[in-house]
Amino acid sequence: MKTKKDIILLGSTGSIGESALRLIRENRDKFNLIGISAHNNVKLLSEIVNEFDVPNVVLSNEKNAKDYFGKYELNVGSLCLIDLAKIKCDIVISGIIGMSGLHAAYTAINYGNDLAIANKETLVSAGKFFINKSKEKNVKILPVDSEHSAIFQCLNNKNISRLDHITLTASGGPFLNTPLEYFKNIKPQDAIKHPVWKMGKKISVDSATMINKALEIIEASVLFNLSSNKIDVVVHPEHIIHGLVHYKDGSVIANLGLPDMITPLSVALSWPNRLDLKLKKMSLVNINKLTFFKPDLDKFPGLKLGWDTLQSPYCSPVVLNASNEIAVDCFLKNKIRYTDIFNIVDETLNFYNPTKPQNLDDVIEIDKIARKHALKFTNKVD
Amino acid sequence: MKTKKDIILLGSTGSIGESALRLIRENRDKFNLIGISAHNNVKLLSEIVNEFDVPNVVLSNEKNAKDYFGKYELNVGSLCLIDLAKIKCDIVISGIIGMSGLHAAYTAINYGNDLAIANKETLVSAGKFFINKSKEKNVKILPVDSEHSAIFQCLNNKNISRLDHITLTASGGPFLNTPLEYFKNIKPQDAIKHPVWKMGKKISVDSATMINKALEIIEASVLFNLSSNKIDVVVHPEHIIHGLVHYKDGSVIANLGLPDMITPLSVALSWPNRLDLKLKKMSLVNINKLTFFKPDLDKFPGLKLGWDTLQSPYCSPVVLNASNEIAVDCFLKNKIRYTDIFNIVDETLNFYNPTKPQNLDDVIEIDKIARKHALKFTNKVD
Prior knowledge:
Chain A is of the alpha/beta class.
């Protein structure tokens, strides 16, 4: 019997990559890293290749290839990233943020690989196509972010007809207690300071605007086949409860844990089994208090877009995601104000109402057009 | 295909019986009540017979039989109670408190009936015999109290090797914030005011001394085959989280819900399915805050007996349970002080160390002797 799982890690140098490598490093008897990719960070990529002895290596941005010093051959360019995802393995981890990871993740499924996905944007924009393809190919899509992993762990498919609703928790981000009148002066350096999770800049800003949670609503709808009225969001600053499943008999099943990406990653990579990770144990006595609040939609209007766009599930989520990526990028470059992020997303959603995409190419086309419109609105900001 | 489950309800006039009848009343398309028993309350028993059209009726205390007015024949006496449990059905609910329910519950299993058990004392005193018999007869023992139902719902048998520990929550009872120096003056009327649950007097006092939780530790050990070091207790006054299962990968699965016995009863009667109960929905936003504390073993020394007696799992739990029943009874009759309850239990445990029981008769014999000793200590109290 094969005892190790073969893993391909797309996006090995980002925050998900870092957690995945920590997990694999500490469980070398369970996992075998057979392929990795990075986009820019060729130094770290080389180090990972040498540490984990990874035979299949891809750098998607060819510009930095000359600095590679890994002991296996380097393949360069985005087509090689697609080829990497085709290699037969037990599970592909998609840790590439934004839309760049879309094709590679889809290819993984299309070639019969299970997919552990940490990439919200992919499921938000093209979720239905992913789910349909995964059913066709009989492969699993395993969520890696803590909220969806929580729901995944608490849902019992046998009881799905008795599901009342699910609750996604939100830390509330760094501006939970900041008065609305200060919001226009929020700077990028304030927005990327997330109170709970150490994450990339884009995701940290999404968390600060709570558009992160809007994307998660859409993601949950896709992953668990739920209509928008079955998904609730509660602000929970301690972020110990990651998600709850409410059944119609009054039972609520929840997933809790200290914030550590390694746990949901481990769940995805081992399911239906679990690993022994020797982590710090969660103690409710030490935590002492868990609090819960209704999200403030005046301060975080972006959150509402999660439910709103689910009314037209095949198109608006793509526009939401694309315009948000543009707006956040402009905010991080100090071109627009924090409060403009929502305005640009909202204007783009109102202006551009594409027809329902029929395939992945349509999604990419809609995404491209939405970005153009968003950029146009960004330039209009004074 | 049979669509209704045939139910026998032992102890139909107590608090468990009341909840069970509410559940059956609201789900007449799912359940068919084919047998009931009561001990004293012949008026209520008669009403239940007439309302639910129950053909098999037992009154275990013959004294009150003359007042029976149900439309089916009444069978009288404790032997008839045993016969009732023998009738083939889908599930027997044991809602009889104390040791009186022991034989009938055991008979239910021995005759191949699944058993929904709300009777701590039975599992504490004779749990191993129940578990072994249920395995032999291939029947299920389904916990009905909220804490064990919580653990039952959260445990995934596939992951049992990766279980780190479980946490049972305790409301802390009415004296959680009462200073220790006032404990000697606590009166029965104070002790039976439980802050969360409406329960019988005996259980309310157990909750006030936290000996209730000691019994639950033993019960959990038996039901889920856990050693004492795998069972933690946390005081959680809001009593919204009923139990937690901590896995070695850092994931914690918890069961939450508004306090209502009907939910765990419904879980036991429908498992692995669930019912649609139209209950008030739990809202974390309305609850706002959940708090957690370390139990104060100076104020509640009885709690520690749960772990202590698990060191000799075949005997001391019987003595603990028996001596506690005597002490609580004397306290409720104003014969001893609140603080004497623990002292009497502790003295009995220290004085009487029986040999390991080999069968149910041994358990009953040990129980009887322990009661005598406890009563002796009770009479010595000045």
